[in-house]
Amino acid sequence: MPKPKITETLDKLSSKTAIKNTIYIISIIIFLALILLPPILGIIIKWGAMQDVLSEPELMSGALNAIGTSFAIAFLVSSIDIVAGVPMAWMITRGKSKWLNVLDTFSDIPFIVPTATLGYSLLLFWSDQSRGLSSLFETPLVSPGWLLIILLHFTFSYPVIVRVMVGALLDYKLEYEQASRTLGAAPLTAARTVTFPILKHSLIASFTLAFARSLSETGATMMVAGAFVNGPIFIKNYIGTGKEGPLVFVSFILIALSSLVFVTIRLLGPKLKMPVRKIWPKAERKLSSSIVKSSRNGITLLIFFVIVLVPSLFVAIPAFEAIFTGVLPEALGRVGVWGDYWQSISLSYFVGIVVTLLNVVIGLPMAIIIARRKMGNGPSAVLDMLVNIPIIVPSVALGASLAIFWKENFAFIPEIWLLIFAHLSITYPYFVRSMSAAIERISMELEEAGRTLGAKPLGVFRTIIFPLTKYSMLSGAIMMFTRSVSETGATLVVSNIVTAPVLLVNWVKNEVPTATLGLGCGFLILFSFIILLVLRLVVRGRRTY
Amino acid sequence: MPDVRLVNVTKRFGKIVAVDGVNLHIYDKEYFSLLGPSGCGKTTLLRLIAGLIQPDKGEIYIGDRLVNDVPPEDRDIGFVFQTFALFPHMNAWDNVTYGPRVKGFDMKKAGTIGHEVLEMVRLHERLDAYPNELSGGMMQRIAVARALAAGAKLLLLDEPLGQLDAKVRNELRYEIRKMVKDLELTAIHVTHDQAEAMAISDRIAVIKKGKILQVGTPTELYMTPKSVFVAYFIGESNFLEGYVSNLSRTEAIIELRGGVKIQAGVQENVEKDERVVLAIRPETFVIEKGIKKSKNSILGIIERITFEGTNIRYGVRLENQDLVVVVKPSLVEEWLNVGEKVTISFSLRKTHVFSYPEVGLREELAVE
């Protein structure tokens, strides 16, 4: 079948170097202008306001304490995540039971539950004396505060570790481990001295992602913090008070320190040596026994169900109550607070769709630049690093600095666009990361084969790269979409628009009835779960390229 | 001592039977090859012996020990992978001393073994090199050294030369055999390269579709193949189809296409009037210019000639329209020309007669 004329014209244009370079340069400019620089410039604009903090030792001490707490929690949680999440990833990838597929899907659930909903769910589970675990003890088992924050952060960052490590273990060449076993190493020795050192990059990447996720989370943390203050909550407390100094100071320190931590990990991570020379054959052999293995799996499952899965879905229990009372008909009939609820849901999904589409358009060329080193090795590597920055910046700090930048300089821009810009910044790295990784996995030889057979660059993309990466593209897009829909921290700061997570936070503050709140959260979980399920069905069995 | 016995071993992957009721005895200190086309189950068989996968049925013994449920680390084996599987985060020294260290040897003893095996593979000067700094041949040597350093008496080699270029491959095959023999090891070597198997092995098992077709020394397999496939896979054969028109205890008269009758030796039970396949090695033909009348001779015309350096290869179209290949030493005999009329003849002792395969000749010889 002959190609449509428009396709042929675009194919021809794509082989012109000037046009290709223009597209790449435009995508870099958009990245800098929309994603990377606004939050940095937002802080620079208000640099002078930091004097308020510097001249008030008490305020400064409070701010530094909050920042220190954020980093301490993030470090602690990510470390626990590694200890608890890696055995789960191991069990999913190395186990033989068909139920492990189900476990694999379940392990994603906290990832897709909107964070504000997740926070509320954990609050009910751990602290509510009338419903959750605490009802057994007639006193809150875990009161709102630092311990509940740690539990919450563990719950939502755990799937990050599991997801990254499952991918890494599936891609891992098992022969290394088999070689080690044939040389006499016990399973634990083989894993400790061969498998994990080889997967060191994935371990570091998963730790960094969990660390960043913990550091940046705001919406759910607000739900469970009580009187406890960490960095993002400190920022949130000063929003709307007219005092910009503390807000700018903490945002700056969080952005600067998290970038520093990230760069340090990037630079020093590859040089990190894991202790592989010292081997304890007898002890490690005992620790590899089937009893120890079964115990490890049992503990892993217990942690997953008791600390991750059940608390994440606990909010659904009041939602079930709502089904059998008059709340469900009220919800479906848009009675009372439900009118605003459905409006906020529509708005959240609208923003999610716009953000996803825009990010696909502006993120794809960037993914190609990074994967194929289109700007040369050095600049492409720098872009690769810069793209990650929005992930590690606390979303509330990002929102605060973005609000300052756009409102101070471009006051005419409607709030909905500010919201979209904020969500673009937050979700952009997710798409670029997954797409660049997918493109990198495709051998250059395939592209070269296409070119030698007469295909133009766009034709190569259309007929080779796209078919081979479309499922990564889809999964990246869905990840962006769900992240946008559940985003709370930046949304609260950047505009007064009420998206679904913001509305749920307001409901908690206004103490709406539990059944109403539970149902509101339940709908969001249900919709997210349907999206996840559709993704799994679409992708299932097609990763065979 | 590590002889290896497999008793009725079967391994399935879903609906595919990778190893089908295999019985095999590999003797102590023997260099044994598992030879067959890609996907025939030879690597699966090796991995079963190593304990990297478990059999669905049957028993595997290493020495007198039933090892079905013994994990690989307790089988006392050395395994050399096709891709070498050198640990990329360890240098040559750490790779080589890994086995002694995980077995709990003290550092001094592990060091002594490391030096010995690195000397043996002549790579002592590269002990600090990481795998990505070594050539394919060096990586292969380190992989063998690593397996030897573990102190195992049973060495399993999964296509260990498959990733190397021809010259290095030819050199290393003899080096490996020499090491195995010097150290008095038992070696099981998987390969799809029959020349490699012939050059290196004491005995060879030819495998097809998970079954062992024949076990024997290279000479036995070459001289007395027991099936059409073995005659095809070991060395090279011409196959001529025909019927048994007359039969004695050791000889048969075979009527080929076009009514051409020839005399052949019979090693297999065939019956009069049975459809058969006659296998003749290309190098056993006598080829003469012009028309000569002699026993077991057929007329033909040279259709193509290929010069291969050591040998010259003629494609001869016989008078019955069958095409046969004749190979002659290029520097010994007078060269013939395309289009030239020739007579080819052969000794009946150098022919093999097989029953015509039920699945058809083409299918029987298929290696994919």
The total number of structural domains of chain B is: 2
Indicate the CATH class of the largest domain in chain A.
Mainly Alpha
Instruction: Please give the most extensive interface between any two protein chains, plus how many residues each contributes.
Output: A-B, 26 and 29 residues
CATH topology title of the largest domain in chain B:
Rossmann fold
Number of strands of chain A: 0
β-strand percent of chain A reads under 5%
Parts with pLDDT < 50 across at least 5 consecutive residues of chain A: 541-545
Largest sheet of chain B: 6 strands, mixed
Strand elements of chain B, count: 20
* Coarse structural class of chain B: alpha+beta
Shape of chain B: elongated
**Rg of Cα set of chain A:** 24 Å
How far apart are the termini of chain B? 37 Å
Q: In the residues of chain A, how many domains can be counted?
A: 2
CATH top level of the largest domain in chain B? Alpha Beta
Structure characterization notes:
Chain A is built from 28 helices and no strands. By secondary structure, chain A is an all-alpha fold. Chain A folds into two domains: 1-40 and 315-545, MetI-like (MetI-like fold); 46-313, MetI-like fold. In chain A, helix 17 crosses helix 28 (514-539). The radius of gyration of chain A is 24 Å and the shape is globular. The two termini of chain A are 25 Å apart. Residues 541-545 of chain A have low confidence and may be disordered. With 368 residues, chain B is α+β, with helices and mostly antiparallel strands. Chain B has ten helices and 20 strands. In chain B, the strands form four sheets. Chain B has a six-stranded mixed sheet, with helices on both faces. A five-stranded antiparallel sheet of chain B has the order 13-12-11-14-20. In chain B, strand 11 (238-247) and strand 12 form a beta hairpin. At the A-B interface, helix 9 and helix 10 of A face strand 6 and helix 3 of B.
